[in-house]
Fold this sequence. Notes:
Order of helices and strands: EHEHEHEHEHEHEHHEEHEHEHEHEHHH
Oligomer: single chain
Number of strands: 13
Helix content: 40-55%
Structural class: alpha/beta
Distance between the termini: 57 Å
Amino acid sequence: MPTRILPAVGDADAVRSLVTLLSQLPDAEPVPPVADSTQLVDTLARLAAESVDELPEVVVVHERIGPVPALELVREVALRFPAVGVILITSDAGPGLFSAAMDSGARGLVTLPLSYEELASRVQAVAQWSVGVRRHLGHAGDVFTGAGGRVVTVSGAKGGVGATLTAIQLALAAQASGNATALVDMDLQTGDVASYLDVQFRRSVVDLAAITDISPRVLADAVFRHDTGMALLLAPGEGERGEEVSDRAARQIVSALRSRYEVVVLDCGSQMSGAAAAAVEMADTALLLTTPDVVAVRAAKRTVRMWDRLQIRKAEETTIVVNRHSRGTEIQPPLIQKITGTAVADTAIPANFKELQGAVDAGRLHELDNRSTVKQALWGLAGELGIVRTPEGDRKSGGRLRGGDRGSVSFRRHRHAGGGG
Length: 421
């Protein structure tokens, strides 16, 4: 059986050199190369969604890959796709880098300039390891899921547009439907998730910032288990400590959470720190909250353009959610979509703060009445995003969420025209 090898190289000359050598290896089948870290992860996730057997046995990562640094990319691939063997190509063959690469999950190191013998030896060894892992997983039922958990980020176009409320209700909906769910407060200086859910905590996301290898035990010690069953990873009580969470630390934290939970929802607030930007870049779904007024929509447009300039997220990969929507507002979702150049969620959140005030003031947002139109809309949005498990009957009817008992996870999904949270 040929060994499928996926090169991840950004430099055109390096691509040609590497592909030429790979094509000369016995029983090697180089697949079309990818040019950056985002394309690599997306390609592997798409293949894993079909079957573990569709994944390449070997991924070769060049040290100058971007925008995610090579070692961080190796770590993410190793965590999300453990049946894929990763080889790092580097000009630094020193023991320090070798140790760091192994700690990140690489199965081999090849030095530049490339030599046929070294490359052939490394590829053969890593391919044998990958085949052995897959043979073992073949007897393990559904232990390996490939792409890992679903990561959803919720950001605000400006302060006060409802990002935290939305993130909390999306996570509650996912957890109530049977998904193991983590809610992360990545608004590191002014996060309010703990206040909305009335929890007292000792540990926060900062406690994971300096840890280079976040094991399941370390992660379990850092999260707070809420009464609803959700795992909470909260912002620090001292806002200035938020600066301790670098973009590199954020990537490691998100990767660790993705490997342990089926749904990970991150409240990224409205101030785009390096950590929040890294989370948005890694997300499967990136939501941007706005209200239907000129100031907020302009802020949404600025945010979308900034994400695009900084290569955090393309406009077409961002989804706008309209909060406090009503038929009487002059600015409607189609106009917002045209202004921002993004997708706009089918579900708009109605403007009805009176429904929320009691639960918000009591810090019991998880006890919001199921009859609340705001809650129904937000849980409907969770269904639209695909982060709730729908009953078999709903799948057969096209996956649309249905209304039900007061304690039901799912509500009918539709565009609300009434008054949002």
